[in-house]
Amino acid sequence: MAPYDIRLVGDPVLRQPAAEVTEIDDRLVRLATDMVTTMYEAPGIGLAAPQVGVQKRLFVYDLHDDRGPHTIVNPVISETRGEWVYEEGCLSVPGLSWEIVRPAEVYLTGLDLDGNEVSFEADELLARMFQHEVDHLDGVLLLERLDADQRKQAHRVLRDRALVTEHAEPRRRLRFPGRD
Ligand code: NI
Questions:
Q1: For a Cys-Cys bond, which of 22, 41, 99, 101 suits 2, CB 3.0-4.6 Å?
Q2: pLDDT of the chain along its 180 residues, tens only?
Q3: Which residues are the active-site residues?
Q4: Does 3 map to a domain?
Q5: CA–centroid distance, residue 38 to ligand 1 (Å)
Q6: How many angstroms is it from 52 CA to the middle of ligand 1?
Q7: Is the pTM of this model over 0.85?
Q8: Domain CATH for 93
Q9: How far is the CA of 89 from the centre of ligand 1 (A)?
Q10: Are 9 and 92 within 8 A, CB to CB?
């Protein structure tokens, strides 16, 4: 069983900016390990700490290359370039995805779990996932990145789903495959 339940849209913890990590200690490493397990079981390619109810600036990811999983602590995106449309989903908004425009390339810096500085020039899926996860750390969900029509549709679906969960089954049993 996954160490954490993934928090779903409507949970206020997803709307609060997370705090900088001030110390990389055993507890933080344990948190990252448990987040990775939770991400794999979901399954997803990225998971930010607020999604498991922890208000700290870190996320884990694995794009299923041969080097994962990875943890980035205190990530900062300092440069962006271009535009890319990609169908994006979120484990906290399960079962839904939208074509969203975001910058195609980003420059991200942060720390790894050994406290070493890391930096990435990322494009395509890696760049998209970085932007999505840093948004989580700022209390922003992908719903904020939708255009007006998409947002209307999203709110309708989420409203309907809330009605369904009220009358049919507890919210936590509503699990759908998501991507990140
Ligand atoms: Ni997400």
A1: 41
A2: 789 999 999 999 999 999 999 999 999 999 999 999 999 999 999 999 999 999 999 999 999 887 889 999 999 999 999 999 999 999 999 999 999 999 999 999 999 999 999 999 999 999 999 999 999 999 999 999 999 999 999 989 998 887 555 444 444 544 445 545
A3: 133
A4: no
A5: 13
A6: 11
A7: yes
A8: 3.90.45.10
A9: 7
A10: yes
